[in-house]
Specification:
The complex is a heterodimer of chains A (369) and B (651).
Chain A lengths: L2 H6 L3 H20 L7 E6 L6 H16 L5 E6 L6 H10 L6 E5 L1 H9 L11 E7 L3 E5 L7 H10 L2 E4 L8 H9 L4 E4 L5 H9 L5 E5 H13 L4 E5 L2 E2 L5 E2 L10 H6 L9 H15 L2 E6 L4 H14 L3 H11 L5 E2 H12 L3 H15 L7
Parallel strand pairs in A: 1-2, 1-3, 6-7
Antiparallel strand pairs in A: 3-12, 4-12, 4-13, 5-8, 5-9, 10-11
Helix pairs in contact in A: 5-11, 7-11, 11-14
Chain B lengths: L1 H11 L2 H19 L5 H12 L4 H18 L1 H6 L9 H12 L3 H36 L2 H18 L4 H16 L1 E2 L6 E2 L13 H20 L13 H11 L1 H15 L6 H15 L12 H16 L1 H7 L5 H12 L13 H30 L6 H17 L5 H20 L3 H25 L7 H26 L20 E3 H21 L4 H26 L4 E3 L4 H20 L1 H16 L4 H22 L7 H6 L1
Parallel strand pairs in B: 3-4
Antiparallel strand pairs in B: 1-2
The chains are: A alpha/beta (369), B mainly alpha (651).
Chain lengths: 369, 651
């Protein structure tokens, strides 16, 4: 009410200057490249309510707050083909205008690395804004023993089952780990989720099982406490030097790498270990990815990445993220881009090694391009 | 337990909770009434609001929505013959014939009241059961689940009535259609003809629409009447429907009990429950039976079961984090978004929230059914409108629904291809439910068979649960024989054959030109499909081979029956229906070129003006209404339609 008379007292010319000054940031904004879009569309190539969808919705809530213009973020679920259909669609249709982003997971990364004939997308054409790592734990029926060495010996003697989704899915590195430790674990395929695999374990049909960290805490910890399951090893986490170390969520549990490298004659340079390391990097160290096309305006990309970086110092976000995925620090910006580029790189020889391993060991034929 | 029960009761009846639940119920009814949308679309509407909400309120909203979807979808099942969702497929069997008889209000009233009872009984069962359900759910291993799918397949024997061989062939074809895509055991691709659309298999919603809805539409267009053939008054239909439920209260209780128990078994989709209870009702019903021709018990049984099933499906979802149904899978996502991890904690630390969920389920069922009952009479008037006026609207709805399956043009072409099978089946009296049951159960049957053999070896079939279920299956197969013995003494009864088939009048098997085409086509398909899967690994190819064998043997026996002169030759007209189907094919080609919205509006306008010969004003009004509906849905749910050049310019 009182502001108006005050303003009118300003001389006319000075009024113009005030206006021009007020508009200045707007011009500066325009000079800064493309303006931030009002609406961002995130393509999620998975169904509503799945793990990746929940992560995407969780991230969209925080990213929208962290970006300066608070854009509306629309989640567009395009499920099918184990995420290949929706990702292909994004690859052919998405404009590099900064409005369209893609959320992928291990089950998108693995087929791309194995050159599944259905894959028409190329991760080299995209760049990440933020990536979320996860860990995972292998646990066994208590009849195999209490102590790590004892359990391993028993698992080498007594054949047992492991309930899996598909041969080239999220559990492939875990199956490889069993084989590298010489365990007599046979896979049973066709589970529709890791949850179904755990149910098979609880029924006693499967002797060993594997869950990612958040599912382990909610569903397996009660089993461990009541003596119905014994944790065996974690997959570990990758440090900045690219070495797999103990998982901060399970500091007392040995990692698979420790157990493997303790075997006589085993080294980090073994082909099998290198393959494991590759798939661990792309499937766990960078499990969930938020990507944009590389041709997107560089300054716009920088602002998205700044938005993601700002989240890394936001205590509320970090607390919520710990609950959602476990005590793992998300990877942002250029670091994520570097790690992704090296993780997705799989030489033809290594790829052939995986194909041969699946065929000779389990009789599974994988078609590659 | 009692504390949590009472505390949650207070929570449920608080004003804010009721408001949010009411909102959920409204959205649930809306997405339930529109065919093709279901829990997934409803969830997509609600999810953006969920994050950061108080868990109790958010759960109320979610449960409100989930509880009433199987109530609302009854409208299209009864009024248009379109299965609203997979859980109300069996409702079409008798609900639509009742609508044709002019008893739509009766069918709807019965359906809603039994939905209400089913939902409430389900919630009551759940109240105590959730505390002790863990061992039961764990008792169902892959072996038990496999024989349960076999039990579902055995229902084919009951539902195909007198033409068992045709039912067998239809079921085999369904199994084969269900095997298209990827072998669950090895990940090998099979039967996909190199078409990328088929890598994932055919979506259930497309098959449901093609097998049930399309043939009905064609049939109605040829007859040129309204859906209600007999112009009886709707006046007392409402009261009659309620009386029907009261008279059959035993059936309601039994089916609701079956529904909630089967719902607790994870992985056995809700789409089996309606068929199991339908078959149960048709077998055990006393007195005069008209199943398949408009028997009200054929509506009451699946409708009381599917709402109870939605309650039962909460057991594995909450206790194990393994969803018991498609909708429950989405509910699970909602829980995770609220920061709730399902698991044992849901019956220990979060028991109050679990009871909030259960109470909300019961209350939402009551609220939803009451709203639907109020709507039943006015909406049932739709069946008296001349069908030519409704046809373009329903066709648009079907195309809309089919396209939501995977959002690719493949959905539409599959719709026409499977629709052709549905049309031939209907004209020749082959069992369409048998095809659908085969299709629905194929992935489960294969996966569970493979898993049980892998986990247990041959001892899988010596487990006590397995033996009990196998005994039930033997009973289902023996039933037609017992029935035949009884029939010698009594008037032949029509038991759940195809919707418009007059089994009661023609107990002897018939054979005609369409049968000949179908038998020949199936045999040719058998050869082609066998060639396709012969190069696969043993565990990847054994199931399609089994399906091919079932189909081929069924087709051969049907043919042999005719050859030996046991079947009476009948003429089966097919020309006109195929012309209409060709029209649909032309429509989707145009829609993919011009864009869906423009085509739907233009088609409606032209059809109503020139085929239905209505006034321009009426045609314009309906056409604009369709345009607004499609645009509104697009904006509301972030949907995509095929955009041809005209849509790209206009919208």
């Amino acid at each position: 009410m009182h502001a108006k008379p005050k303003l009118s007292r300003l001389p006319c010319r000075r009024w113009w200057i005030v206006c021009a000054l007020a508009l200045l940031p707007l011009f500066a904004e325009a000079d800064d490249g493309q303006p931030m879009p009002d609406t961002l569309t995130w393509t999620v190539p998975f169904g509503v309510g799945g793990g990746t969808d929940v992560w995407a919705r969780f991230m969209s809530h925080w990213m929208a707050r962290s970006l300066p213009s608070h854009p509306a973020i629309v989640i567009d679920n395009v499920p099918g083909g184990g995420s290949i259909t929706g990702t292909n669609l994004f690859y052919t249709r998405a404009q590099p205008n900064g409005e369209e982003m893609l959320v992928t997971s291990a089950s998108t990364q693995f087929p791309a690395m194995l050159e599944d004939p259905r894959v028409r997308f190329d991760y080299a054409k995209w760049t990440p804004i933020i990536a979320a790592p996860t860990g995972g734990v292998v646990y066994v029926q208590p009849r195999f023993g209490k102590e790590t060495g004892e359990i391993l010996d028993n698992l080498r003697e007594e054949p047992t089952k492991f309930a899996m989704q598909t041969p080239t899915g999220l559990e492939m590195p875990v199956m490889l780990a069993f084989d590298m430790l010489g365990l007599a674990v046979e896979p049973v395929f066709g589970m529709r989720s890791r949850g179904e695999g755990r149910l098979a374990f609880e029924r006693g049909e499967a002797g060993v099982d594997f869950q990612t960290t958040s599912a382990y805490f909610s569903s397996v910890t009660p089993l461990v406490e009541s003596g119905q399951a014994v944790p065996l090893f974690s997959l570990g986490v990758m440090n900045d030097e690219g070495v797999i170390v103990r998982d901060p969520a399970f500091p007392d549990l040995p990692t698979f790498s420790e157990l493997y490298l303790a075997q006589p004659g085993a080294s980090r340079d073994d082909v099998a270990y290198e393959v494991f390391h590759k798939f661990f990097a792309s499937g766990y160290a960078l499990q969930k990815l938020l990507l944009v096309p590389k041709q997107v305006d560089a300054r716009l990309l920088a602002r998205y990445r700044d938005g993601a970086k700002a989240l890394m110092t936001n205590e509320d976000f970090l607390a919520a993220a710990r609950q959602q995925v476990g005590p793992y620090e998300p990877v942002v910006g250029e670091v994520a881009a570097r790690q992704l580029a090296s993780a997705m790189e799989l030489s033809d020889a290594r790829r052939q090694w995986v194909v041969d391993w699946l065929k000779d060991r389990y009789g599974v034929r994988v078609v590659t391009r | 337990m009692i504390d949590a029960l009472v505390a949650s009761l207070g929570e449920v009846f608080s004003a804010s909770h009721l408001v949010y639940m009411g909102l959920g119920v409204m959205i649930g009814l809306l997405v339930g009434i529109i065919p093709g949308l279901g829990g997934i679309a409803g969830m997509a509407l609600l999810l953006p609001f969920l994050y950061g909400m108080e868990p109790g309120l958010a759960l109320g909203m979610l449960m409100g929505m989930i509880a009433v979807i199987p109530t609302g979808d009854t409208f299209t099942s009864v009024l248009m013959g379109i299965p609203g969702s997979s859980a109300s497929q069996a409702t079409v069997m008798d609900g639509f014939p009742l609508a044709k008889k002019g008893q739509a209000a009766r069918a709807l009233a019965s359906a809603f009241l039994s939905s209400l009872c089913g939902g409430v009984i389900g919630a009551i069962v759940l109240t105590g059961f959730i505390l002790v359900a863990r061992p039961l759910v764990l008792a169902f291993s892959s072996a038990e689940l496999f024989v349960l799918t076999l039990l579902g397949l055995a229902m084919v024997a009951v539902l195909s009535g007198d033409s068992l061989f045709k039912g067998m062939a239809a079921c085999g074809l369904g199994l084969l259609a269900g095997a298209i895509g990827t072998a669950p055991a090895t990940g090998e691709f099979r039967l996909n003809l190199g078409v990328e659309y088929l890598f994932d298999g055919i979506p259930l919603i497309v098959v449901g629409l093609a097998i049930f809805a399309l043939p009905e539409i064609v049939d109605l267009l040829i007859r040129r009447g309204s859906i209600a053939r007999e112009q009886t008054s709707l006046g007392h239909g409402w009261r009659q429907g309620i009386r029907d439920v009261v008279d059959n209260r035993g059936l309601v209780a039994k089916c609701a009990g079956m529904g909630s128990l089967i719902g607790t078994i994870p992985g056995l989709a809700g789409s089996v429950v309606d068929w199991l209870t339908y078959a149960f009702a048709s077998k055990t019903a006393k007195g005069e039976k008209h199943f398949g021709h408009g028997d009200i018990r054929g509506v009451i049984a699946p409708e009381s079961a599917n709402n109870a099933c939605a309650c039962g499906a909460m057991v594995p979802t909450l206790l194990f984090g393994v969803p018991g149904s498609g909708t429950a899978a989405i509910f699970l996502g909602g829980l995770l978004l609220l920061g709730l991890e399902p698991g044992v904690s849901m019956i220990t630390t979060h028991l109050d929230l679990t009871y909030t969920i259960i109470w909300s389920l019961a209350l939402a069922n009551i609220l939803g059914a009451a709203l639907c009952l109020m709507l039943a009479r006015p909406v049932a008037q739709l069946t008296r409108i001349p069908f030519v006026l409704l046809a373009p609207v329903i066709t648009t709805l079907i195309l809309f629904a089919a396209f939501q399956a995977t959002r690719s043009l493949g959905d539409w072409y599959t719709l026409v291809a499977v629709g052709a099978i549905g049309l031939l089946f209907k004209q020749a009296g082959w069992s369409r439910p048998a095809f659908l049951i085969g299709f629905v159960l194929a992935p489960g049957a294969e996966t569970y068979f493979y898993q049980s053999v892998q986990f247990h070896g041959m001892t899988a079939f010596l487990r006590p649960g397995v033996i009990i279920i196998l005994a039930l299956i033997a009973l289902a197969f023996a039933f037609p024989l017992i029935k035949r013995l009884l029939q010698r003494r009594r008037q032949p009864l029509a038991v759940g054959a195809d919707v418009n088939r007059q089994t009661a009048d023609s107990p002897a098997p018939t054979f005609g030109n369409i049968d000949l085409v179908l038998v020949a086509g199936m045999l040719a398909l058998a050869v082609g499909a066998w060639y396709d899967v012969s190069g696969m690994s043993m565990i990847g190819g054994i199931f399609p081979m089994l399906a091919i064998a079932i189909m081929a043997i069924g087709a051969l026996l049907t043919g042999a029956q005719a050859w030996k002169g046991q079947a009476t030759w009948v003429s089966q007209p097919i020309g006109q229906p195929l012309v209409w189907l060709g029209g649909l094919l032309a429509l989707i080609v145009v829609a993919s070129l011009l864009g869906f919205i423009s085509t739907a509006v233009l088609m409606t306008l032209g059809f109503i003006r020139f085929v239905a010969k209505a006034r321009w004003s009426a045609a314009l009004l309906i056409a604009i209404g369709i345009g607004i509906f499609l645009l509104g849905m697009q904006a509301l749910l972030n949907l995509h339609y095929p955009t041809g050049w005209l849509d790209a310019m206009l919208f």
